[in-house]
Amino acid sequence: MALTALPAAAAPLDLASIELGQTLACTSKDPTKQLYVVIGRIEPLGGRAAVSVSLYDKAPGSPLPQMAHLPIDLEALGASCAPTTKQSLLISPLFEEGYADWRKAVEAHQAGVVAMSVDDVDDLVRKQVATAKAAEAGKPTATQRPEPQSLDPKS
To answer: Over pLDDT 70: what percentage of the chain?
Structure first.
């Protein structure tokens, strides 16, 4: 019986393995997604390392191709993304605006960092965007009940 060597697990991300401007490839349960993050800021926050990134889905026709600013915990980022990728992306042009808004909210004790996977954040935001678009279009969403329709053809 021949033994096959398994690929070595990627080293977990730590502050020494990431740098500003670095592009990371992220895993997804959905094979149609092509998720990447670009590191914009790294800072301590409440005893944790907060990493502010721009999130991209490079899949053709993605309904959510970019999130300009996402503040994520280093451990959650490390569980989601690998430091090696051939893709090289730029930080979003809207990153600084999103970062500034987040910093104001942090200073007011109204914000923190995300501690869930990049893929789960992407799924959650996609659902919120779809709900907002449906509400804008006047379509009922999962949390709204449609108005009762009259069965009387004259009304």
So the answer is: 81
Amino acid at the residue 124? L
Confidence of residue 19 (pLDDT cuts 50, 70, 90): very high
Positive or negative, the Cα torsion across 74, 79, 80, 86?
positive
Structural domain including 89 reads: 18-136
State the total domains in the chain.
Answer: 1
108: left (phi over 0), alpha (psi -120 to 50) or beta: alpha
pLDDT tens-place string over residues 68-91:
999 999 999 999 998 877 889 999
Joined together, the tokens standing for residue 85 give 């990728």
CB atoms < 10 A from the CB of 57, how many? 22
